[in-house]
Amino acid sequence: MILLLAKTVIGIVALLHIYFLWLEMFAWTTKAKKVFRKFPEELFEPTKTLAANQGLYNGFLAAGLIWSLTIQDAVWQIYVGLFFLACVATAGIYGAATASKKIFAVQGLPAILGIVLLLIHQFL
Length: 124
Hints:
InterPro entries: DUF1304 (IPR009732). The protein has 124 residues and is mainly α. The chain has a single domain (2-29, 48-123), classed as de novo design (two linked rop proteins). The protein is built from 5 helices and no strands. The protein has helices at 2-26, 31-35, 48-70, 74-98, 101-123. Helix 3 runs antiparallel to helix 4 (74-98).
């Protein structure tokens, strides 16, 4: 039961990162303006390439999380899941410290929840 909940959280975190990829790579000068309201509007166009690069990294995180759900070996599935969730949690903590506290709630907390659930499953 706990493993199923952990996998559900991993799936949600992966979907969030697919959304971040889309937002930063393909909708930076349109939809992202509505999401990042505090970001100066005149900077969206000049930072388009930087945002796309950031979106690509979010795609790598999503791919790793999805990969963790497809691994057949139970131990490696947990290890890979923990690694990619730790990457997401670290990005969420760093983002909260350097950009916006909201990043921790949207990115860091779900990843930490996934980590806790995987560790509970591992040690029960």
